[in-house]
Amino acid sequence: MNRFRFTLSWPLLSHLAILICLLIWSLAVWWPTRFLPFHWDSAGFVHQAAQNLLATNFSPLIADGSDFAHPPLVPLLLAWVRISFPPDLLNAHLLVLPLLPLFLISAYWFGYKLSGPLGGVALAFLLGFTPVVLAESGIIYLDLPVAAFSLTALTLWLYRRPWLSLGFFFLALATKETALLLLPFYFFYGFNGWSRRRLVLYCLVPIFVMFGWFAYHASVTTWWFIAPTAQFGHRFTQNLTELLNVTVKILRVSGLDQARFLISLPLIIILYRSALDYRQFKPSDRRLFNSLLSVMLSFGLFYLVISEYTPRYLILILPYLYFLVIWGLSRWFAKLTPNFHLWLLSGYTALTSLAFIYFWRPTSPLLTRYDFRPPSDLRYQNQIAVFRQAAAQLTVQAPNLVVYGSFPENIYFTEPLLGYISKPLTFRPCLETTINAKPPVIIVVHPFSPGQQLCRRLVSAANLKPFAHFTSADQWLELYQFNATAAAVLPTL
What we know:
The chain is mainly α. It has 2 domains: 2-33 and 96-358, no CATH class; 380-487. The protein is built from 19 helices and 5 strands. It has helices at residues 12-30, 41-55, 73-84, 89-94, 99-129, 131-136, 143-158, 162-175, 183-189, 196-221, 240-255, 261-277, 283-306, 318-333, 340-358, 380-397, 409-412, 452-461, 484-487, and strands spanning 402-405, 426-429, 441-445, 468-472, 475-482. The longest helix has 31 residues, at 99-129. It is globular and about 80 Å long. 40% of the residues are buried. Residues 1-8 have low confidence and may be disordered.
């Protein structure tokens, strides 16, 4: 323990008890997901990229299927699992089992180092109860791995293990290029005994590594960072309104959704007080504040530039947002009556965690409009449920019929490894203008993707009624049978 300079002001048993609780909680969260099928981008990107790597014998080492030049670590690991073990859902989900405990344990030691035992417990609890974190812990994708590896890297940096820290940071970079957004933390926090020049050289290593990856990616695909066919990126340069819309979206998703207003409101006050008292900060406080703020700014500017933002991206900087609030509450209220800040922080953590619980699976009416973003809470499991129900009925009642739809059923119903079907169904996209009605075909309708608007036009034009309707919470899916009589009144799309 002394090698990592842990200050055991708490008894060792207290540390062990907390770490065991975090492990048990992580396992309890993961356990119900161990047989869940692949969902959304885990099917559309990770699974597809893994299969492409296997089909090409890992050459070139490119993760196909995304509009971003993502590094291939997660698809590569999934491909390795599929050739080394039975390619079932359990073995695939075992890949993500270590990630939530790594994330929470690193958060505990991060907070403990910078703000004492209660700071570590508060940070781990808040992250462990955050809805989007719990949702991503059951999905085989990139955002939780990159957040877990990068937080571990920065925690090791705090405990003066620079080269081990760099190793975990490389794992984060090999998962997703957005890990580079955390490099300012290294630079502003510094390292005792290191000159600024040495620190700059240290930080340049990951940049050169990622430049090498992007150059390799461009040599294979002809594009560097974002695919030229992507439907986002740099739109705001043509329109000030678009810039404002993207800014509002980032602020809303980051600061309001899923009860995060309980984080953003005290954060605004803390930033204001810090701006007023910045000159009175101790050097250590100033260094920490600069590090945390630089991470927030680099993150915000990056996603403002690419004009693409979803709640799961936020996981990368949640530890630093949460800790800035914890640090601010401890700092400003420690000057009041003794131990008041401890009670305040405990109450704040408990209240916020309870609010988060409500948003794990919030109750809402059945969707009546299109919602093109997958749920960023545990309702993603409800969405999986309606596709499983539909797949089960189609497999039994219509295994030989052609199924029309869009994303994600184009993958769910044709790839047995995803966990929805045992044998592939024959699939056609709704964008086709003619439909073979002999034998009858099935049209899948749901509100989850843009291509479904064409499917809805098909069934509406033919005045069809669903023969099957599946619901789970606010998620729904319908199946329609399309025959020659319906085809006679179908207009050309």
